[in-house]
Structures are given as C-alpha cells and as structure tokens.
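Q: I'm building a small set of examples for a reading group on sequence design. Run inverse folding on the following structure and report the sequence directly after it, with nothing in between.
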C-alpha cells in the first residue's frame, strides 16, 4: 500500500524549512571559521568497532541504540550514532598523535534506534566541533565560548551553560567507590537500568532520567574532592578563563554526560523553550581509544542537535531568514515567443540571474498569477510584436514601470540590479 510518510523517526525537509536549516549550517561555518576550524566530512557509516571502542561498550548508545548490520563481505558496519568517533578515526592518519593540533567541524545526519521524542529523531542532524591533539584548560574554555557565540548568532542569547569535571582517568576509582557506596543503599528503589549500572558503570546512574532515580541522585554525596589536586586545578582554570571571557555558567556536580570517553571538563547547554527534555548541546574533553590503538586521541568538542535548535528558535520566535531572491519571470505569448524565452532563460541563468519561465501555453492573466506566486521582481513579456522588433518588454512588479530592451540590453540591465 502506497504511503507518503517517511519511516518513523525521520522527516522530509521541504524547501521552506530547508532555508531554516541552511541558516544553522551557514552560521556554523562562519562562526567556527573565526576560531580557525575547517570542515571535515566523514562517511555516514563506520566499522562497528569504531563506536564500540570509542564510545564505550557500557553506554546506552552502544548497548541499545545503534543501527548495525553486516555487509556482503561479512563486515559489521554501523550508521554513525554520533560524530566524534568517526572524526577521530579520520584524524588518526594525521599528526595529531604527536601533539599537533587539528581544529575541525562536521555536520550531517546521525542515526539512533531510540524511541522518537520531542526534538529527537532516529535520523537526526548534528553540527559539531573537535579540537584534537593538545590538552589545555584554555582550549576547553575557548571551545565553550565558541558554542555560546554560535548560539548568540542564531538568536539564542539566553541559553544556560552547565559545566562539571570528570577528573583525570586515574581519579575515577576513589570517586566511583564513594558513589557506589551511596547508591548501594538505595538501589532497591531505582530502575532496572540503574541496578545494572551499579556494578558495570556507576557514572551512568548520574545520567539517568527516570523520575524516581532523579530524586535519589539529587542527594548524591560530594565526590569531586576525591579527585587529584591537578584535576581540581585544571577545572578551576577552565572556570577562571570562562569568567575572564564573560561567559556565564553554573557548576553542576551531577553532570557527567553519557559517554565513557570524557575526562576533565564536561558541559551541557539547556534552554527552557524545550520543556523537560531541555538540552540543546553537550560536549567536553575526552580521551578516545580507537580499535587496535593503545594510545588515546586527546581532544575537546561538542555536538548540537539541529532539530533542537529549530525548536528553540521557534519558541523564541526568531524571525525566519529573509529570502531576498526575486526571480525574473519570462512571459510568453505564442509558440515562437516561448522558444525565444527558453533560449533567453538559459542566457540569464548562465549569467547568475534566477529565472522562471512558463513552458505551457497560458493566458497572460494566468502567467501573471504564476509570476506573483514565485515572487518575481521583473516580468519579461515577449509576443509576436516583440519578436518582430527584436525586443522584449521588462515590467518591474513593484512599481509597474515598463521598459523595452534587446536581449543584450536586458542582460546588462538585470546584472546591474
């Protein structure tokens, strides 16, 4: 049975909405370029092990949400559920492992087999950045500042920035012992996922969204003091630099982010316009291991869901981008005039002038309606009389003013408008 709807969790993006998407993408290119970032494009699917090793076997993404399949060669492949692991795989062939910095950004579709919720789809779209190769708290703060800069340029100046630290990898054991001792006393009242996380990955409990679990998580004891002094100093420096840059933030000790590769700085940006599921963006510093590599990739970055950004812009009533393009409309009275206009349309388009031409035999009144429908700036009228004189009539729609031009004169006139 024919069905015009796309698969659940996906959406068609028609031209009017696509203009909103282009604004998000073009603003990203502009803002990130100011900070020295260049675009890197990777495949939409990778070897499954890239994500299992990079993101972590115990994460929700790997355990429940990945679209994985075997290809005809028996290779396990996965549609990318996030951007970072694939970017790291690509950068592994560069000199980042020698401490040389690479600044890249990416954009495109991601895929997760989760139940679609508000602003979340099975095929969703992200813009993200990665600064790879060097470790410094100043780089973490600059990355955060760039994210807030991007949101301001999109008309979202009031988003809330939450930050925290995961400490160095070697700090984890004492912090985990503190958390495990606390949650073991309450685990009977928590969800089945948290019961599994208690022994397998205690940090995932802090990220649980279940209401009953959140009430217990809210009483989590202080664990940051168990981190090394070096880790605490690193985080303090991040905060100091954000203060220097005038970036407002709130330290949230329960913020851990959902992926295992994070170390030191983690951050999340939320907005009240999204309701309960209020996250716009998240990221942090990471140490990411790739298959058959014993040395991690070191970097800091973030990802932003474009669907979520559009929801916030709608809630804030950010005006849509103004379409300044007003095409020229070629109106034909007769078969010979239509052939002439088809040839003229090709000349105008090759000259970079947006052009619409009527290809069917219609009355002048019907063609003028078509011209109004495409918001034409000028209507070029051609009939038997005009053909005999070697001219066309150019009517400016805004004023009604009319002029006669040869084809060459018309081209010069429109180029200078």
């Amino acid at each position: 049975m024919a069905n015009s709807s796309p698969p659940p969790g996906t959406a068609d993006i028609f031209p009017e909405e696509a203009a909103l998407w282009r604004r998000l993408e073009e603003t990203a290119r502009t803002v990130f370029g100011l900070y020295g970032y260049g675009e890197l494009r990777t495949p939409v699917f990778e070897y499954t092990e890239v994500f299992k090793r990079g993101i972590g076997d115990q994460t929700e993404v790997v355990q429940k949400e990945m679209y994985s399949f075997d290809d005809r060669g028996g290779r396990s492949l996965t549609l990318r559920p996030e951007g970072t692991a694939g970017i790291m795989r690509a950068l592994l062939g560069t000199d980042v492992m020698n401490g040389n910095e690479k600044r890249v950004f990416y954009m495109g579709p991601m895929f997760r087999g989760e139940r679609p919720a508000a602003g979340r789809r099975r095929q969703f779209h992200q813009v993200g950045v990665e600064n790879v190769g060097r470790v410094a708290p100043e780089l973490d703060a600059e990355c955060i500042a760039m994210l807030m800069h991007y949101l301001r340029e999109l008309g979202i100046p009031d988003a809330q920035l939450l930050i925290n630290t995961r400490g160095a990898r070697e700090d984890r054991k004492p912090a985990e012992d503190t958390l495990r001792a606390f949650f073991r006393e309450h685990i009977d009242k928590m969800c089945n996922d948290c019961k599994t996380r208690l022994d397998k990955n205690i940090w995932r409990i802090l990220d649980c969204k279940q209401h009953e679990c959140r009430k217990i998580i809210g009483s989590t004891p202080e664990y940051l003091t168990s981190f090394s002094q070096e880790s605490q100093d690193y985080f303090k420096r991040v905060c100091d630099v954000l203060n220097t840059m005038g970036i407002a933030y709130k330290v949230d000790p329960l913020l851990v982010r959902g992926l295992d590769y994070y170390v030191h700085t983690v951050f999340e940006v939320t907005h009240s316009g999204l309701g309960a599921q209020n996250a716009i963006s998240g990221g942090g510093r990471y140490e990411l291991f790739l298959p058959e590599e014993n040395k991690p990739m070191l970097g800091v970055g973030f990802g932003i869901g474009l669907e979520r950004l559009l929801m916030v812009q709608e809630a804030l009533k950010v005006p849509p981008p103004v379409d300044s393009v007003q095409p020229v409309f070629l109106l034909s009275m007769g078969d010979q005039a239509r052939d002439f206009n088809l040839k003229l349309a090709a000349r105008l388009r090759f000259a970079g002038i947006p052009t619409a031409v009527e290809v069917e035999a219609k009355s002048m009144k019907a063609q003028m309606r078509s011209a109004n429908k495409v918001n034409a700036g000028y209507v070029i009228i051609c009939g038997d009389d005009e053909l005999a004189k070697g001219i066309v009539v150019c009517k400016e729609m805004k004023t009604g003013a009319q002029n006669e031009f040869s084809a060459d004169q018309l081209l010069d006139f429109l180029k200078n408008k």
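The longest strand covers residues 102-111.
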